[in-house]
Amino acid sequence: MYKLNHLVVFVIFFITACAAPNTARINYDTAELDAEASIQRELALKKLFSYKKRLHNVSYPILRSASKFCPDKQVNSVGAQGASSADFESYWKTTANNILGGDEFIITWVAKDGPAASAGLAVNDKVIAVNDVQFGTNKLQHTKFYAETNRIQMSKYTQAKLTVKRGEQQVLNLSVNQEKICDYPAVLSESNAVNAYADGRRIIITKGMMRFAQDDQDLALVIAHELGHNLMGHIDKKQSNHMLGTLLDLAASVNGINTQGMFSSAGASAFSQDFEAEADYVALYYMKAADLPLEGVADFWRDMAAEHPSSIGSNHSASHPATSERFLAISKTIEEINSKIASGQPLRPNLK
Ligand SMILES: [Zn+2]
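That is the input. Now the predicted structure with zinc ion docked in place:
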C-alpha cells in the first residue's frame, strides 16, 4: 500500500513537473470570449440551416416525381418549410432568433417551382396564420404548419390560406395550391458518420454523408436509394424475416463494421444484399422520373471505393453488395433506362 501511494505521488509529481507549458498563456476577458462564442454559434447554426436547405433542394424534386410510384403513401405539400427559435435549446435560442430574424414561425425554405413559390411565399416570411389558425411564438409551430398545409384541413379548403408578414409592415394573404409528394420526408442526422438510412417512414441522411456526396447528383442517388427501401417495403419485409434492427443503411458494407450488430439475424441478412441491390435499381428510375441526369452517377461507388478500399471485393456474408458490384449494376441499369427511352417504353422498374 505504501509502495502504491508512493508511486501515485511520484506519477503526479512527474506529470505536473513535465506537462506544464513553458510559454505564457494568451489572456482574453469574458466579454471577448462570449462574443467569439456567439459568432461561432451563429456560424454553426447557419451551417446547419445550409445542410437542411441542400437536403430539401435535392430531396423534394425526387419525392415529387416519385409520387407516381407511391400511390398509397402520398401526402399533399405546398413545398415550404419553416422554423421557430422556440424549438431550440436555451443555449441556442438567441442565436436562432438572430438568424431567423424573430421569434415567430419563419419560412426557411421554399421549393423551386413548387406551389408556395408560385403563390409568392418567400424565405424570411413570418407566418401569422394558416387556414385562419393563428400561429404564435411557442414550440412546435412547424407541426401545426405541416398539419395545416399538408393534411388535415384539406377537406375543408382546396387551397392553403397563408397570412404572412414580410418585413416590418407588409401583410400578405396567399392562396397556395398543393401537390402530391411521397410521404417519406428527408431529415438530417447530425452524425458525422458517412451514412444514410431508411426507417420505413423517413429518409435519414447524416451530415457526414452530405459532405461525402459532394455534388447534388451523388446526394440524389443516396436519397433515391433510401426512398427505394421505404417504397419497396424493405423494412416490413426485414422485420417479418425477424430482423433485429429497423434501419437499413446505405454504406454499411463500406467498412464492414458499422452494422454488424444490426444485421446479425441470419434469416434477414440472406435478403439484405438483394434488398440493397433493389434499392440501387429503383433509385435510378426515381432519379430519371425527376429528370435528373444519370450520366456519371455510378462514379459515386468508385469514389466510395477509393475512400474505403475494403469494400471493393464481393463478400456474400456482407450486408451490402461490394462497391464494384454496385458500380456495374448502376451502369447497366442506366443502359436499361436509356434503351427504354430510345424505344419509347414506359420508365418503370422491371418486375420479376
Ligand atoms: Zn440500403
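Confidence is low (pLDDT under 50) at residues 240-248, 251-270.
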